[in-house]
Amino acid sequence: MKLKGRRTNFISDAVSQFGGYLVVLLGLMFLLRVFEFLSGPAGQALASGGTWRYYFSALYFDLVYVLFISPILFVVFLLCYWRSAKLAKTAAVVLFSLVVLGHGLLVQYFSTALNLLGADLFHYSAEEISQTAGAALTGSMVLGVVFGLLVVVLLFVFIPQHFKLHRKLATALLTLSVLCFLFIGIAPASPKADFGSEYLNNAVENKSAFFYNEAYYYLSGQEQHENLPLFADFYLGYDGKSNSKGMATFVYPDVENYPFLREDNSVELFSSFLRKEETPPNVVVIVIEGLGRAFSNENAYMGSFTPFLDSLSNHSLYWENCLSTSGRTFSVLPSLLASLPFGEHGFTEMGKAMPPHQSLISLLRHNGYDSRFLYAGDAQFDQMNVFIQKQGCDELIDKNNFGSGYKLLPENASGFSWGYGDFELYRRFFHALDNSSGSKPEVNVLLTVATHSPFLVNNQEHYKEQFNQLLPTLGLDEQMEAICRNYQQQLETVLYMDDALRNFFEAYRQRDEFENTLFVITGDHRMPDIPMSTKIDRYHVPLIVYSPLIERPAKFSSVVSHFDFTPSMMAYFKEEFDFQIPELTCWVGAGLDSISRFSNRDTYPLMQTKMTISDLVSGEHFLNDGKLYRIEADMALVEEDDPELVDRLRLDLLRFKNKNSQFVKDQKLYPDSIIARY
Questions:
Q1: Nearest-angstrom CA–CA distance, 341 and 667
Q2: How far apart are CA 569 and CA 587, in angstroms?
Q3: In terms of CB atoms within 10 Å, which end of the chain has fewer, N or C?
Q4: Is 639's pLDDT higher than 60?
Q5: What is the dihedral of CA 285, 290, 293, 298, to 10 degrees?
């Protein structure tokens, strides 16, 4: 009986002692939530009357997270307590402090990047993570983390010594934790209420719960995959008709061995707008980091901070509703230059195992072009260098071989700089042109980096002044103007980027080859460091094709994607200049649409991060994580309730994902005969 009593006292004492640590943890989680709310734009973004709903939803997520991890922490605490109370206290201070530190860092990541960090972290190398973290690191942030950790440790050391929960209350709290662990899980379903923006819907979630939930499924190999037989008629929907208009028109001659190989029936439209010269035109593709429609050109809901680009689009072929294929840079080169499928975690993630394929660069080289790729940062990031080398590109210039005489972007407090600014990138490009023979037409691809965290550019004071002059003229309401001021530094770099483009074209006009050059400008994705209005906002980028060859400029409101660019470009060269192009291609896109009114004839899978292909645009509808939205003419989203249409779109997405999975497994795109010939 005495032994039983000692055991009972031992467990109840441990529960009571543990309850003190749990109360401190709950208090710190609450304080971190307050910090997140006050340091971010949530207060400004919330509509009138939605503040309390946001608070309660956020606290619900935080409470569920703490309750879920409590049984895990208690088991460790109890085992240590069995050895000695002192060991248990030391273990508790370490474990609880690490929990708070990890959560604080995830909150800081979200506050900086405005994106939830998930298992996509595991698909970046240590060097890439170091570069990204270094870009965001500031001296005040480091001091804040050190000071905050010291305070947290002291709180866990002293408060539980003088404060213990009543045993019955601690037992009830631990019982509730066990029930949460068993029946609710670490990441409960999002609240039914929609807060009106993607940023708010993400902000309300517990950042640790989201990360650990995704990490668990990834590391345990229990990722959820929906699979259907690749050739099942069920793919076509209940009545035998797919909702996918674009994909249904493709003819796949050998889908069992080459799931993406199809007859090339790409739309050719450029010849209707361009004057034909005897010599094929040079091609200059400029991909601008973070350039989104939210703050560029007419009807940008944040107002336009790109006055030069706006004026250029009036003399161009301009697609105002273009979609990038992902929310990060990793997919822009394969999608824009080669219309390639994603692979498992992005095509470039395959590294040297990327199967042979055709692209804008490789096919133009096959038809007599010289080629060059210039990146203002380190091209090893996302293995862009490997992808470009696979195209047989003649010259690759990046941060590592930029040469002397060029000024890096300003360093942040940790001494990090992504690379060179836009002015320097364009100056380096002109130097390369001056040293080329000029005997062949050229295709040049340039990728900028200045409009990226930490958003530091040379001569920043000038763009700060320009921002303050421009903002009052945009006619924004008070709420949007306040948001713009909160993200002034980001928008200053947008003004810098636009100014650099102005300087670029002024210099290029002085060159002989200007009159016979096609310039293509787009964003790799919409800048995520400014809150998103909708789920599709992160993909919404401009696509501008400018050239002195254009006889009649036009603006198109039809939805297109990066997948469509190379198919239309190669169809143009084949039609106008009789270029040798394969009759069979693996283009995912059907080609650019030239409809001036808002419409969409095609279906596009989208990969937000390197983890999953979860989004689909089909016709005028958008499927995101199983939710259906109708796309409005201004690319706003309106949620719809149509279970049958959801099933159709889900099947279309599964159709693509299964073809993509087969490609990942077999790693085959083209037959050897096509690769050998082209």
A1: 11
A2: 12
A3: N
A4: yes
A5: -70
By C-alpha distance, which of 210, 206, 216 is closest to 63?
A: 206
pLDDT exceeding 90 applies to what percent of the chain?
53
CA 607 vs CA 261, 326, 621: distances in Å: 21, 5, 16
> Looking up tokens 């999953």, which residue turns up?
612
3-state secondary structure of 283: strand
pLDDT in tens, 347-396: 999 999 999 999 999 999 999 999 999 999 999 988 999 999 999 999 99
Pairwise CA distance, residues 626 & 628, whole Å: 7
- Contact between residue 320 and residue 556 where contact means Cβ atoms under 8 Å apart: yes
Six-digit token string for 322: 């273009």
Could you tell me which residue, 222 or 169, shows the higher pLDDT?
169
Sign of torsion, CA 39 45 46 48?
A: positive
**CA 133/CA 508 separation, integer angstroms:** 36
Say if residues 637 and 535 touch (Cβ distance below 8 Å): yes
Alpha carbons 428 and 422: distance in angstroms, whole number: 10
Angstrom distance (rounded) from CA 238 to CA 130: 49
Helix (H) or strand (E) holding 629: strand 627-631
SS (H, E, C) 633-648: CCCCEEECCCHHHHHH
pLDDT for residue 17: 81
Residues 6+ apart with CB under 8 A from 607: 325, 326, 331, 342, 346, 613, 614, 615
- Give the whole-angstrom CA distance, residue 524 versus residue 518: 19
539, 324 contact by CB (below 8 A): yes
Question: pLDDT tens-digit profile of 538-549?
Answer: 999 999 999 999
Q: What is the mean pLDDT of residues 280-293?
A: 97
Least-confidence region, from 289-298, 609-618, 635-644: 609-618
Angle between helices 85-113 and 51-83 (to 10 degrees): 150
Of 250, 393, 344, the closest CA to residue 610 belongs to 344
Q: DSSP states of 392-428 as a string?
A: T-SEEE-GGG--SS-PBPPP-TTS---SB-HHHHHHH
Interatomic CA distance for residues 558 and 633, integer angstroms: 9
Under a CB-based contact definition with an 8 Å cutoff, are residues 241 and 652 in contact?
no
Neighbours of 135 (CB within 10 A): 21
Which residues, in sequence order, are CB contacts of 149 under 8 Å at separation 6+?
97, 101
Calpha distance 363→371 (Å, rounded): 11
Domain-by-domain residue ranges, the chain? 2-219, 235-344+357-677
Contacts of 570 (CB under 8 A, 6+ apart): 266, 360, 363, 579, 581
What letters, b where the CB count within 10 A reaches 16 and e where it falls short, cover 628-637? bbebeeebeb
Strand 554-556 versus strand 317-323 pairing type: parallel
